[in-house]
Design brief:
This protein is of the alpha/beta class. The protein folds into 2 domains: 145 residues, Periplasmic binding protein-like II (D-Maltodextrin-Binding Protein, domain 2, 3-Layer(aba) Sandwich); 98 residues, 3-Layer(aba) Sandwich (D-Maltodextrin-Binding Protein, domain 2). 40% of the residues lie in helices and 27% in strands. α2 packs across α8. About 7% of the residues have low confidence.
């Protein structure tokens, strides 16, 4: 009996402590949805998803700073700690029960990108399995997708800039990016995006704000209502249209 009471008290203390800590908001440098203007973790944040998140914060009077960190670290935290939100996170079947979802904040097409002039032709996933090496962002949904599909030629790296460098230098044959990301990464690294060629659209995905399973239910409800309101009043479409230009 005492053990049951102690366990219940411990659970109560942990729950109250998690609620008192407030929400930790995390993103990564992944243009054009969320990134810093100078590419560092302390630079000025911008991007379509950042604007949506900040608009929600304004509406619910939340002043929590948005932290920028490598994707692998943020993805680990949102799975291990209560009251953590990570964006922009691709919503997949494999991740469905890992998080609580609010969104989407964007829609993306995944594409295989090659260096301009590459003799490679891709018309199916099976074609892509036959190339020497495909660059993918470590712990990203695209890397996980390739592995789930049985790809054994995946080169996983820690940042998009390295993916670009390996593709341009010929160390990788393809890069599984999205239709906008590879252009923005090229621009940030002073590479002409015209030197890269999208070969094949793999699939269309939606990206969300992913809240850890331990996040307070009241917090989720507040963010969801604010998101629904900005969708209903046209603010969401205005932000999307701005970044589509």
């Amino acid at each position: 009996m005492k053990r049951c009471v102690l366990a219940a008290l411990l659970l109560l203390v942990l729950t109250v402590t998690a609620q008192a800590q407030g929400l930790k908001i995390i993103t990564e440098n992944a243009p054009p949805l969320n990134y810093t203007e100078d590419g560092t973790e302390t630079g000025k944040l911008t991007g379509q998803a950042v604007e949506i998140v900040k608009e929600i914060q304004k509406r619910i009077q939340d002043t929590t700073p948005i932290e920028v960190m490598p994707w692998a670290r943020g993805y680990d935290l949102v799975q291990k700690e209560a009251n953590v939100m990570l964006f922009s996170t691709t919503r997949t079947e494999a991740r469905e029960k890992l998080f609580q979802w609010v969104g989407p904040v964007a829609v993306n097409d995944w594409v295989f990108v090659a260096k301009k002039g590459s003799p490679i032709t891709i018309s199916s996933l099976d074609d892509a399995k036959k190339v020497g090496s495909i660059g993918a962002y470590k712990n990203d949904s695209r890397e996980l997708f390739l592995k789930e599909q049985g790809f054994t030629n995946v080169d996983s790296v820690d940042d998009p800039a390295t993916l670009l460098k390996k593709l341009v230098s010929g160390r990788n044959d393809l890069w599984l990016s999205d239709k906008d990301e590879y252009k923005e990464v090229a621009k940030a690294n002073k590479v002409d995006a015209a030197d890269l060629t999208p070969l094949y659209t793999v699939k269309r995905t939606e990206l969300y704000m992913a809240f850890s399973q331990g996040t307070d239910a009241g917090t989720i409800q507040k963010w969801q209502k604010a998101y629904d309101d900005l969708k209903a009043d046209g603010t969401y479409e205005k932000i999307v249209a701005k970044w589509a230009k």
